[in-house]
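Mods, move this if it's the wrong board.
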Amino acid sequence: MNRTLFPFALSILAGAVLAANAAAATPGNDPAALGQIRAAALKSDWAYERLADMTDLIGPRLSGSAGAAAAVTQVAEAMRKIGAKVTLQPVKVPHWVRGAESAELTEYAGRPAGLSQKVVLTALGGSGATPAAGLTAQVIVVHDFDELKARAAEVKGRIVLFDVPFDQQMADHGQAGQAYGQGVQYRGGGTRMAAQMGAAAALVRSVGGADYRLPHTGASGLQDGARIPAAAVSTEDSMLMARLAKRGPVTMHLTLTPQTLPDADSFNVIADLPGTDKADEIVIVSGHLDSWDLATGANDDGAGVVSAMAVIDTLKKLDFRPRRTIRLIAWMNEENGGRGAQAYLEANKADAGKHFAAIENDEGSGRVFGMRTSVPFESMKQFAPLRAALAPMGAGALQRTDVLGTGDLHGLEAAGVPSFAPLIDESTYFNYHHTPADTLDKVKPEDLRRHVAVMATTTWFLANMEQPVGRTVVPAR
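Not the wrong board. Structure tokens:
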């Protein structure tokens, strides 16, 4: 080396070391650092580009499918490319495959001779199959569990339809999750009850809004030994059958030929951004990688996965080094089994105390207003700097609940890990949820950037907090 340049080289090296140390030591509540993260995320379309890769190049990603396997590879490669430490955690997942699905009303009071009416439906995950040529049976329309019990003598050998409307008005006023819960109980509990009572098949009115004769699939909850054919029918066709049933008996010819195959090998994708002085403590940021098979799962949950991935991308580009390890998890099998979450919990049960906090984004890509959390009440005041950092983008809300209960995090939350989820406008989420319409065009790039900004800022804040936030206490049921 030229000796005249040696002092200059030393100064550059010293400056680089100081910069690296400064990045590593930046406290989570530093307003400048939080502002930098927010601003960087709001300028980047890295997450949207990854979502386009996932939805346009792969498509649907139901557990056990070729699409799910391709998504594991794609996400792992993307995270390796930005320098994260990637691990693939093996998971055995259900492998259910959709077959032919059709239905028509062949008999009803006042039917003109020679006519029948097509019913738009789609099999529910885990559904059993009809004979290849289908089955023909009378339809019994009920509106709740009590009515089904009251008509128990009529059920055996017949098709039960739960005609329960989705409360869109509730969804429009910030209670979409509650509206969904009210309807989805019939998709799981209703199909099982019908099977136990000897029904030939079970149908549910689609759980969701935007009534454009669009069926919404989802898990049926049926198990081996009691897998009757089960399907979701469009809102319009459910209402039609309810009206016809008031005129007299209604008969349907139903064909569903799905298969339940042996469990398949799959993986959770885990990517770590190692911490500095608290590297053994972990902050999870996550979304689920699998989707239903009717569409490309852009909202459920492609947007959640890529926004979680972009947290690490944002921090890497800023050269921000967290005190605690930030762990991306792209969960496998949230939709029809939760096996990925179970596998992670089992592998980390002894180290649950080392998990400082966990975030999951799994409620669509709508406008985000802040975060929901299950941190202890007395810890809420610690988040004032985070709320202040997110306020300029209109996302400073922090809503607390005793139990968040978010998809893949419920086991960790029960083990005491404080959980977080973005606070999102879900008023239109269930228009597309579990339907053929859940595609990339439904995701607004500007909203996705906001998701990344909220999640990255929150993750950095958690990863660098001086004081612990305490453990979550899940009330006994």
